[in-house]
Write a structure and sequence with these properties.
CATH class of the largest domain: Alpha Beta
Order of helices and strands: EEEEHEEEHHEEEEEHEEEHH
Distance between the termini: 87 Å
Strand content: 35-45%
Shape: elongated
Helix content: 10-25%
Number of domains: 2
CATH architecture of the largest domain: Alpha-Beta Complex
Radius of gyration: 26 Å
CATH superfamily of the largest domain: Nucleoside Triphosphate Pyrophosphohydrolase
CATH topology of the largest domain: Nucleoside Triphosphate Pyrophosphohydrolase
Low-confidence stretches: none
């Protein structure tokens, strides 16, 4: 049991979010009436009576940053007993319960700005995580505590990809700003839906991305890749991709065209295999691995 301090007791339950984006963290600056010196903290705040914590943190993030956040299902809870702390013009025996969620905002979200007038924060901004950790950015202890225990969301995905060759070229798609590895070229394909056969998935993806129908041949390679980054949803993920590469044939006269709008593909093209092998074109490793495993293409019949 905590010792009696003699001060009026004050208990507060609040919800906050750790929101990361490519080495940066979203923070709110405390108002001078709370901290005369510059001090940044996680966006969030106190729960209204009867309010769900997940609803509260979404509301608070919007009020303090102007951004619409999504938060995870689980959270960490921190307890701080602060006897004699100064609150609202007097000293109190404060007990703070802080519920900290993982959060994320859309990758095309605007710059943060404070929406709430007269609240506890006066500014919102992205800051380098490295600057927070090395003390360059002055932050409340809660920020360091939450970062020390934060782990990126782990996401493993099974994908199916099409190796389509014609003469000395391979059919590739370019990754848009909404996907990992923006600007690089890869094989047509994508995630296998729950319950979907991989061979069906590769034909569906070929049609969705390139507007082509084809025939699925042999499985020529199994590729895996492990990295961290911002997903199309805006969530920062520890991502493990396992890709099945199938040889796929299309009609001789068929030509690809970009069929996906506002997705993770922004261009499709026949790319000379020599440019892939020389490095003249930036491609993901799954392209080279698929070409190596498949060997020389069969002669084209005319």
């Amino acid at each position: 049991m905590a010792p009696m301090s003699g001060y009026p007791k004050r208990q507060r339950v609040a919800a906050y979010a750790v929101i990361l984006r490519e080495g940066q963290i979203l923070l709110s600056r405390l108002a001078p009436r709370i901290s005369p010196d510059e001090l940044w903290t996680l966006p969030g705040g106190g729960l209204d009576h009867g309010e769900d914590p997940r609803d509260a943190v979404v509301r608070e993030v919007h009020e303090e940053t102007g951004l619409d956040a999504v938060v995870g299902e689980t959270a960490r809870v921190y307890s701080a007993h602060l006897p004699g702390v100064w609150r609202d013009g007097r000293r109190v025996d404060a007990h703070a319960l802080r519920i900290v969620y993982e959060g994320w905002v859309p990758i095309d979200a605007p710059e943060p700005r404070v929406v709430e007038v007269g609240g506890s924060t006066v500014e919102a901004s992205w800051h380098p995580v490295a600057g927070v950790l090395d003390g360059t950015v002055p932050v409340a202890p809660m920020v360091l505590e939450a970062l020390a225990e934060h782990r990126p969301f782990r996401h493993q995905r099974l994908g199916a990809y099409a190796l389509v060759r014609r003469d000395d070229a391979v059919l590739l798609t370019r990754i848009s700003a909404r996907g990992f590895h923006t600007g690089s070229w890869t094989l047509p394909g994508g995630g296998v839906a729950h319950g979907e056969a991989p061979r069906s998935a590769v034909l569906r993806e070929l049609r969705e991305e390139c507007g082509l129908d084809g025939g699925v041949g042999e499985l020529v390679a199994v590729h895996d890749e492990h990295f961290s980054g911002t997903a199309p949803s805006g969530r920062y993920e520890d991502f493990h991709a396992v890709g099945l590469v199938f040889e796929v044939t299309i009609e001789d006269a068929a030509e690809p065209e970009l069929a996906e709008v506002d997705g993770t593909t922004d261009a499709v093209a026949w790319v000379p295999i020599a440019d892939v092998e020389s490095g003249a074109v930036s491609v993901l490793e799954i392209v080279r691995e698929g070409l190596r495993a498949a060997g020389p293409p069969p002669p084209r019949t005319r």
